[in-house]
Amino acid sequence: MNLEHICYGCFQEKPDDSPVCPHCGFNAEEEQPFLALPMGALLNGRYMTGKVLGVGGFGITYLGYDLTLEIKVAVKEYMPSGLATRHSDKYSVALTGRGQEDYQNGMERFLEEARILAKLQNTPNIVSVQNYFKENNTAYFVMEYIDGMSLKAYVASQGGKIPYDQALTILMPVMQALTQVHALNLTHRDISPDNISITSKGESKLLDFGAARFSIGDEKSVSVILKHGYAPEEQYSSKGNQGPWTDVYAMGATLYRCVTGELPPDSIMRVHNDTLKKPSELGVPLPPQVEQAIMKALAVKAEDRFSTMGAFIEGITGKTPASFHHRTMAVPSGQTAAGSDGKPGLWTRFRRSHIGVQITALVLCVAVLGLGVWGAVAGIGALTGGKAEPGSSDGPSGTPFDITVQEPEGVDDVVLQDYAQEYLNITMGIPQGYAETESGSGAFASSDGSATLQVGFYDKAADFPVYTLSDVEENVEKYVQYYIGLLKSTNITKHEILSRGYREGSSLDTYLIQFSATESGGTTMEFLAAFIECQNGFGCYNLIGSYPQGDEKAQAEIFAAMDSFQSSGPAGTNSQRFYDERLPFQFIYWESDGEITFNVVNENLLRMVNEAGDVQVEIQCRPSSDQFNKEVWLDGIAEVMVNQPGLKREEGRWEHESGGIDWIVDRYTYTLDGQTAYTEVYAGEIDGYVFAITASAYTEEALITNGMILDTTYTIRPVK
């Protein structure tokens, strides 16, 4: 093989030195993602790197070539973007700060995944690791290259769901492989259609053991690993009792998603109001034992599930009857299943947290995009789990963002049709030929499906709350990164922020963000997001349009629609802003009439009690200084707490990132006359203030799932 003419997209020899490969169409002149190694880099004297297959927060995966065995491989590199960068030599890794200990600990966890896969080397239907080593001041491991597509992409290519017998054909080998994984006292903890690949030979392979852990039953605490819809309720606690039953739930959710086309509600949400429907209730006929087994695997409580994957297999095949008890929690008085006052949105306490996505329009965009240019390529991808590199803080060619998006030509010529939404209190024009994808959804697509437009209300998501448009302005990169993450069904290889700024001359204060995203086939879409002031006192309207790059007509249509936007009153939302002029802070919470009682104790202390009276939250706030920070405050609270009779502090202070704030947390138990109560104390800093949030509950479950603590830790901010 002539390495001078090698294609780094398929590792076949090209007939000449043309940058475009005639075999796979890969263009060698395309820019590699940020922080990636140069193509053609040689690792361990044996592995040549090619194009990037995927980028995550802690690693980069490359297509590689084993020069000894002369086969393609996948090479995973430890590259925590928050701690390190690429050295000027383009190969070695250099730390960006003082996080040496965090970097080394992360590298050890990275290599642990390789060691786990090495122990599973001869297990069928599990991706095998061939080598792992340290080099360039970082670590690598080499896996077999999976030539195929993810189960998620395959199901999407089949219209969103597949027959149950086909799903079982794909998943049963993985389930059998998991029985061997569990026999080694291992739990995968991240099973989902993203992490199951179907090879070109029709084999099923389980990927990504980065969340797996040994000896789960012997650990006092494990890290919180979540994939909403697939994670059981015990994964929402760092001290949840995890084991084979944890993987049983995730596999049940995967099978449910494949045959029904719907993702099960988050397990933590089901604790309070279980809305999970049987497949037969969704119009999907299944053999009775299959449906019963799926529903038992998806039981909220671990003790109601199959305890082993083998038992789940027996239940599906009908060897063991699988009884299932479906729990339904009563909806509180004055509320409807549709939401407060019958407005859109399922009433559930968990929806008050940021984990329940609040931006309906953005979620809809994922489905709508399947109609457009990316529809034909959404199911193509050699290795799953890839993410785009972080967006740059500068515009094209390093241009600083001091001007807003430039208005395209032809805006005045666009023909608009009237559209109004009473719930959001808005009117606007929709380009002629665009149709609403579902009545009342606020999501529209052009007649050929290549352009989309969605409208919704934005208050908290993307790891930052919104009180004013300045919050959007300060968090542009987070918003774009979050939005790209919603497009996981499409294999995005890179994205770029093109421009951003306030819209001059708009009748309402508007902030615009223009960005692009390119999928693996080379097709690039542009997105224009408009954040528009509202009359709620917090949050904003969010309009986002998408169109193929270079489609000036579609760009003008999106721009014209946004310019026509008008608001006639406060937007309908179940979120509310808490603010009291006596207190220096504010937060956003999920509204439910009569559920929370607020009591301002003094100028720095707020006490909240839920309607049942079994959960209480206190918020305190003080200015930070060199002598006073979150560690000092939490240590001081601990000194007082541990001296109280019956009060015990649990070992291990843990960290929790929420809403852009790095919280540190202590947990306590209080026992009196044989009764136990639970308390967690969160301490965090932002914008010159230190916050201490104390949550107490009569049950550990109530403490973990409490909506008040989820809301406040995610959205609390000083009043500016």
**What's the CATH topology label of the largest domain?**
Protein Transport Mog1p, Chain A
Briefly, what CATH class of the largest domain? Answer: Alpha Beta
Largest sheet descriptor: 8 strands, antiparallel
Total E-strand runs:
36
User: What count of structural domains?
Assistant: 4
Write down the overall geometry.
Answer: globular
CATH architecture of the largest domain: 3-Layer(aba) Sandwich
Number of helices: 14
Name the structural class.
Answer: alpha+beta
Strand content: 25-35%
Helix content: 10-25%
Give the N-terminus to C-terminus distance in angstroms.
Answer: 65 Å
Our Rg estimate from Cα atoms comes to 26 Å
Low-confidence stretches: 214-224, 320-402
CATH fourth-tier homologous superfamily of the largest domain: Mog1/PsbP, alpha/beta/alpha sandwich
Mean pLDDT reading: 80
